[in-house]
Amino acid sequence: MRTTSNPAFRNLPTTGGYANFNYGQGQPAAPFGQAPAAPPQTARPMTIDDVVTKTAITLGLAVITGALTYLVGPPAVALALPAAIVGLVISLVIIFKKKVSPALVIAYSAVEGVFLGGISYVIALAVGNPGIIIQAIAGTVGVFAAMLVVYKTGAIRVTPKLTKWIIGAVAGVAVLMLVNMIASFFTPGGLGLRDGGGLAIAFSLLCIGIAAFSFLLDFDAADQAIKGGVDAKFAWYIAFGLMTTLVWLYLEILRLLSYFQSSD
């Protein structure tokens, strides 16, 4: 499996018991003239249906909790920061935990929904246009669908060179975000990457582009996992990984739209 910029996919095994050539190895020798006994099968290989189902569950839950949070009104503002912190903690546990935990992935989705609902309410209130939320959702769905088509048609192939470029770009923007945040403690607006000016618009467009290309690595990692016959339970990792990229993309699109709204 190729390297991916999404840390969630690094927990995926490269092969599974259904796709390797180790059948019969490590089993007691069968009597002469008899076929070797089949090794015990405790799970089944992952399919595209598993990925679609688990991803639909995580996204559906995030949409529900996000909508409910947004609809509660002003209290949503107070929920955004705690939800962001809890979501970060859960995501780190998922990434570094050795075993797949569907409960943690579901909890992460629910908490991220609360965070997205809260931050969406804050931004919509700031620009005075609730319709910006629908626009951001439509933009996120559009980019996701477009990149899926690009991947499935092979218009852009995931090569080792492209993979390294995307990983480097993700690391680069992450460092810039951190530096900008630190600088904002000493100078209003920090480096100007999030103040709504021309540089902020360019930076958001860059982040949207990198997030979009990250989907190609996510799709490829999922595709390689399915071809490798990994255990079906690892579909939860894939759903979690796609969820993290979708959250990032949505936030960047929402932020970009807010810049244009503020400039009107």
Task: Kindly summarize this structure in a few lines.
This protein has 264 residues and is mainly alpha-helical.
List the helices and strands and how they pair.
Layout (H helix, E strand, L loop, with lengths): L47 H24 L3 H22 L5 H26 L3 H23 L6 H25 L13 H30 L7 H29 L1
Helix pairs in contact: 1-3, 1-7, 2-3, 3-7, 4-6, 4-7, 5-6, 6-7
Pfam family, one: BaxI_1
InterPro entries: BaxI_1-like
Keywords: Membrane, Transmembrane, Transmembrane helix
Task: Describe this protein's structure.
InterPro entries: BaxI_1-like (IPR010539). Pfam families: BaxI_1. Keywords: Membrane, Transmembrane, Transmembrane helix. The chain crosses the membrane at residues 51-71, 77-96, 103-126, 132-153, 165-186, 198-222, 234-251. The chain has one domain (44-263). It is built from 7 helices and no strands. It is mainly α and 264 residues long. Helix 1 crosses helix 7 (235-263) and helix 2 packs antiparallel against helix 3 (102-127). The termini are far apart. The longest helix has 30 residues, at 198-227. The chain is globular, with a radius of gyration of 21 Å. Helices cover 68% and strands 0% of the residues.
